[in-house]
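Hello Y.,

Per our agreement to keep a running log of every chain we model this quarter, I'm adding this entry. I've kept the format consistent with earlier entries: sequence first, then predicted structure.
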Amino acid sequence: MNPTTDLRHLRVRLGPAFTARPEHPVPVRPALACPDITPRQLEVLRLVADGLENKQIADRLGIVDRTVECHVAALVAAFGAGNRTGMAVKAVRMGVV
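Predicted structure for the entry above:
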């Protein structure tokens, strides 16, 4: 058998259940929806999750430390975390990074 034959066989065995569309479409995002963050914040988030400190992130992205601090503060708030570690853990669990 080849994949096309297998698919036809499945259609015959399952009938309408095979081709029926779900009544409620599956959401694109997981149950724990990712907060809306900017592309730059996503870059910062990935680097925080990699364990980099603010100064290292700033140097890597070519921005000043204070800008990194602002991004981290916004990310912590967006993820509803108490600190940067909690934010990184939530982001990893949600599949953001």
